């Protein structure tokens, strides 16, 4: 599996350091606010586990699986809920944890959805941000790394379901795409 990777972009050590720094900021910003930390499945699972262990104040965790319709023929601002939250966000300070923000369609829709359910505030923490590819305005509050416009895998991110378990973020070799 490691042989399919052209280059390692961010090592486990670099990700750990980023999680520590973001966790410190999140702790300060959410002290006394009992945030509901929402993991967007499946990609954010590994980063979620890192981030919440760096949050040194009371918080609750929940999980949601959504898919963006992701094309221009369907009206924007819509997100398909595959697994919904277990708890209500009404009046809650919400922190969404994502793996990557690309076009921003998924997150823009999700933020709208949670605000429509009367969350008190909605903030975003993402491991990776690809700002060059943005179609929808989404400004994450906490960003691990800004990534170049390459398809990346590992640390939760997949190509056709594989590579999520790699303990780093890397760029796939082109021949892996070409052989499909
Ligand atoms: P949007 O475009 O709505 O979508 O911001 C974000 C989702 O798109 C997927 N995505 C990627 N997945 N490597 C991946 O493994 C990438 O480089 C990549 N870029 C976008 C991902 O599912 C993310 O949640
Ligand atoms: Mg995702």
UniProtKB/TrEMBL annotation:
It catalyses: IMP + diphosphate = hypoxanthine + 5-phospho-alpha-D-ribose 1-diphosphate; GMP + diphosphate = guanine + 5-phospho-alpha-D-ribose 1-diphosphate. GO terms for biological process: GMP salvage; guanine salvage; hypoxanthine metabolic process; IMP salvage; purine ribonucleoside salvage. Its main location: cytoplasm. Its EC number is 2.4.2.8. GO terms for molecular function: guanine phosphoribosyltransferase activity; hypoxanthine phosphoribosyltransferase activity; magnesium ion binding; nucleotide binding. It is found in: Cytoplasm. Pathway: Purine metabolism; GMP biosynthesis via salvage pathway; GMP from guanine: step 1/1; Purine metabolism; IMP biosynthesis via salvage pathway; IMP from hypoxanthine: step 1/1. Residues 11-160 form the Phosphoribosyltransferase domain. The keyword Cytoplasm applies. Pfam families: Pribosyltran. Its cofactor is Mg(2+). GO terms for cellular component: cytosol. Keywords: Cytoplasm, Glycosyltransferase, Magnesium, Metal-binding, Nucleotide-binding, Purine salvage, Transferase. Belongs to the purine/pyrimidine phosphoribosyltransferase family. Purine salvage pathway enzyme that catalyzes the transfer of the ribosyl-5-phosphate group from 5-phospho-alpha-D-ribose 1-diphosphate (PRPP) to the N9 position of the 6-oxopurines hypoxanthine and guanine to form the corresponding ribonucleotides IMP (inosine 5'-monophosphate) and GMP (guanosine 5'-monophosphate), with the release of PPi. This is Hypoxanthine phosphoribosyltransferase. It comes from Ligilactobacillus ruminis DPC 6832.
